[in-house]
Amino acid sequence: MARYAQVQGSVALITLTNPPVNALSAAVRLGITEAVTRALRDPKVKSVVICGENGVFCGGADIREFAKPMTGPPLVPMISAIEEGDKPVVAAIEGVAFGGGLELALGCHYRIAHSKARVGLPEVTLGLLPAAGGTQRLPRLIGLAPALELITTGRHVTAQEALKLGIVDKVTDQSAQDLAIQFAQEVIGQPLLPRKLSTQLTPCPPDVDTILDEAMARVKQRARGAMAPVACVQAVRAAVNLPYQAGMQKEQELMAFLFRSSQARALQYCFFAQRAVGKWSLSSGAHSGNSKPRPVTKAAVIGLGTMGRGITVALVKAGLSVVAVETNKKQLEMGKQMVSAMLKHDAQKMNAVPRLDLLHYTTDLSELKNTDLIIEAVFEDMALKKEVFKKLSSVCKPDAVLCTNTSGLDVDELASVTKRPELVVGMHFFAPAHVMKLLEVVRGSRSSPEVMATAMHLGKRLGKVSVVVGNCSGFVGNRMLRPYLDQANFLLEEGATPELVDGALEEFGFPMGVFKVSDLSGLDVGWRIRKEAGLTGPNVDPKDPLRRRQGRRYSPLPDLVCEQGRLGQKSGRGWYLYDKPGGRVATPDPDIHKLLEDYRVRHGIRPRQIGSQEVLERCLFALINEGFRVLEDGMAMGPEGIDMIYVFGYGWPRHRGGPMFYAAMVGLPRVLERLEYYQQVHPDVPHLQPSSLLRRLVVNGSPPLDKWRDFLQRPHSQL
Ligand SMILES: CCC[C@H](O)CC(=O)SCCNC(=O)CCNC(=O)[C@H](O)C(C)(C)COP(=O)([O-])OP(=O)([O-])OC[C@H]1O[C@@H](n2cnc3c(N)ncnc32)[C@H](O)[C@@H]1OP(=O)([O-])[O-]
């Protein structure tokens, strides 16, 4: 797993050979250890170059090995042996040097990078810290503040930035390996001690304690309960306060603690789940490996509202030529100004030129005849969308793919009005569409594999995490959100306040609680949908009592709030009070407390004390329960898809792995027992009846998440 060769007479060339990313598996570590020992012992070898096969230096420790017992030589002594040796060792970095890969390079005496290479210590994103000396060597090399930033965020840096920071010594546009071999010969005989980072002191500015304290405060505020960033700061503090060996000891202790944590398991699960969802498959046998995407060079977006503008920006940023369509000149001009401003703002941040030349604006649908793919992003109204699809079907070229950006409408119904239902697919973007990473790709019953491949491939080009979902009301994300929102409303009826519910959810790790998110999105959105569904407003069945609708319990609280003109942040008042319309800072509102108290009195509800545990169990377990129903109905490929939808689209804390992973961590028997308990206490509250899949899994001994598919009653899929 490491190839050894002697080149240019006196240079030992050690090549890591573990495709695709040369991860430091046990076999690779053994290979490096043996090769380094051989090079250091061979009197004919005067210097050493370490590189990676296939243009990749090293993607770090082999994450797949973390779940297994440790075998093979450990990394720390392997890297120390390189540094302590008496022959200069040069790392030739092409592709990436991440995590243990960069730590290996930091143990070398010199580092040469290709101009396209990237380096970084992303361990924190896996719930770990750089534990092969990274927390001790990097601060010694580049100083405290930049090392803290890189280690606590896991940010990757380009070769150019790495050169500026002093992480690498040279950058080349040619072969890094060739330059490293040449360089390795030039440095023979030069003093090595100054190049051995473990022998150096961390350069310390006078305000070192302030820097460390501020970094700790920053990560605590950002981490939302994640432990790894905090441990990273503690480890770097040791690089300042302790000698190297004691610092290494501290690094190992902190790593041992993190390594066993459920957070590390959750984050590593997310790493693999994110990659797994890209490998989609359909019940027909078609899958990502055997379905070719159609080429898309020219796309169109219909409707330049909030979603359409974001989608247009995302497409242009991915280098596609885009035709943007609006119904009239005024709307078009408004949309154009907004899109241009967004693109300019983005380009400015990246020091680039905005690609306004890729855009063409029109009010004339006939200008779409040469586009390969069209994304309809008009108002969420079935009749309107059908009208647009009918027109598209007649003006677009026969093989153009028609996508709808709907957040829950029936894709089949839309497809049925076109002459090409097999070329229709849902692409559910999340607002703001040029920022949010999630894309639900909705398979209609007639969407062809080729069209699924095209939508998934486009998602990838846009930098999205794209997840294939089935065509059911709300698809996966919004379908599961409904029970979550409902429980939050019922909790208000029973005695909670918006700030109590939000506080518990934020403590759990959501960036914002459910009521703050509703205020941000605008309360009128849901109000309009409920009116259309006959749950409130003039279409309500007069026979329905106030707290029942369509045969089940209903909380009219959100409607009452809207009726008072409280529409959320935009009106300065919603579930919270804001300093001004459009204000962002939410403060608890005594008027809302009064509204809740009056409501309870009116309906004879005696408020009770509600704790965070109940908030979490009611809201999250109801959401998870719906997740099991989604699986049972064959609307998702597996729990990994559901989890990635929640992590990337709904702010589910990544260090808790997503709702289905969380359920497995809590224990399925516990989830079942609590749902049964709440259902017994609140028999008329919907969504608390445990799903049959959850029951079946518990009866069968709660198998691990990757075995859940085996327990689907009808091993069918709507995908
Ligand atoms: C003592 C502790 C020391 C140390 O401090 C700890 C660490 O180093 S922690 C590690 C710190 N390092 C990191 O966190 C880096 C994690 N890796 C990455 O960031 C990206 O994978 C990389 C940029 C390298 C390539 O991106 P790309 O070109 O878009 O390609 P891709 O992403 O699709 O991956 C291709 C395939 O390789 C697989 N695989 C990848 N890396 C690893 C790994 N380390 N291991 C195992 N497997 C790995 C990946 O699953 C996929 O497999 P499959 O079966 O084909 O789905």
Automatic annotation (TrEMBL):
It is found in: Peroxisome. GO terms for cellular component: peroxisome. Keywords: Fatty acid metabolism, Isomerase, Lipid metabolism, Lyase, Multifunctional enzyme, NAD, Oxidoreductase, Peroxisome. Its EC number is 1.1.1.35, 4.2.1.17, 5.3.3.8. Residues 298-471 form the 3-hydroxyacyl-CoA dehydrogenase NAD binding domain. Coiled coil: none annotated. Residues 474-578, 615-702 form the 3-hydroxyacyl-CoA dehydrogenase C-terminal domain. Its main location: other. Pathway: Lipid metabolism; fatty acid beta-oxidation. The keyword Lyase applies. The keyword NAD applies. GO terms for molecular function: (3S)-3-hydroxyacyl-CoA dehydrogenase (NAD+) activity; delta(3)-delta(2)-enoyl-CoA isomerase activity; enoyl-CoA hydratase activity; NAD+ binding. GO terms for biological process: fatty acid beta-oxidation. It catalyses: (3S)-hydroxydecanoyl-CoA = (2E)-decenoyl-CoA + H2O; (3S)-hydroxydecanoyl-CoA + NAD(+) = 3-oxodecanoyl-CoA + NADH + H(+); (2S,3S)-3-hydroxy-2-methylbutanoyl-CoA = (2E)-2-methylbut-2-enoyl-CoA + H2O; (3E,5Z)-octadienoyl-CoA = (2E,5Z)-octadienoyl-CoA. Belongs to the enoyl-CoA hydratase/isomerase family. PANTHER family: 3-HYDROXYACYL-COA DEHYROGENASE (PTHR23309), PEROXISOMAL BIFUNCTIONAL ENZYME (PTHR23309:SF49). Monomer. This is Peroxisomal bifunctional enzyme. It comes from Alosa alosa.
